[in-house]
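From the methods appendix. Each design record in this collection lists the tokenized structure first, followed by the designed amino acid sequence. Records were kept in a plain field format so they could be parsed without special tools. The example shown here is representative of the layout used throughout.

RECORD:
FOLD TOKENS (218 positions):
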């Protein structure tokens, strides 16, 4: 497969399969990938390159991907050939790494590549540990929009919130992030926190219903 990242053009001996990426701006970029490399871990590409599916396409050797981030597709190709961590290149236009990784995971979900998805998860966890930071609602919502209930990536996002979220007077980034959560993500986080929270012996409302009054005291 050849692209801007100088992939190994000698790898494999099978016929190249062009992966035609069509982003939302309708600018077409074609990346050539050796068929055996393209199909080594992706169930989607393994099926898409079979004879009966190839015959249904105008160009049997081209698989069109609509709406995927071109940098994500390039990162996928680099990973296929060299097992590079699925991260954006330093000279790319990508600014925020967490949203990029979320898009990469969703791409792995789309092409049914469990091995790639696991590699993306490793990158997300490594970044959280090394930078002592967490994904924001933007990243978490990307994961939730592109995965199904029970997804390990969803579980990781929930664990980040349940075990990592905190609020201090001088730091309200988590508050701002939580306010941007999708309904499904917020529901999972609340359930996770309830399951994690120890049973409380004292309830704040016992003998203190006045705390919830709107009228003036006196």
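DESIGN:
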């Amino acid at each position: 497969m050849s692209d801007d990242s100088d992939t190994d053009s000698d790898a494999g001996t099978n016929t190249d399969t062009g992966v035609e990426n069509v982003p939302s701006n309708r600018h077409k970029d074609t990346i050539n990938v050796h068929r055996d490399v393209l199909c080594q871990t992706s169930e989607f590409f393994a099926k898409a390159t079979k004879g009966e599916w190839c015959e249904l396409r105008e160009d049997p050797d081209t698989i069109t991907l609509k709406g995927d981030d071109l940098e994500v597709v390039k990162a996928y190709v680099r990973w296929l050939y060299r097992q590079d961590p699925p991260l954006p290149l330093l000279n790319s236009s990508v600014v925020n790494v967490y949203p990029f990784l979320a898009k990469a995971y969703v791409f792995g979900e789309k092409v049914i590549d469990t091995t790639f998805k696991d590699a993306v998860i490793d990158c997300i966890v490594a970044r959280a540990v090394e930078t002592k930071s967490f994904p924001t609602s933007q990243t978490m919502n990307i994961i939730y929009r592109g995965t199904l209930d029970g997804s390990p990536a969803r579980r990781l996002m929930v664990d980040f919130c349940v075990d990592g979220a905190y609020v201090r007077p001088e730091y309200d980034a988590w508050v701002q992030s939580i306010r941007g959560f999708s309904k499904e993500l917020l529901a999972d986080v609340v359930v996770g926190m309830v399951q994690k929270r120890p049973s409380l012996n004292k309830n704040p409302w016992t003998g203190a219903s006045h705390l919830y009054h709107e009228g003036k005291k006196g």
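APPENDIX NOTE: The mean pLDDT is 84.
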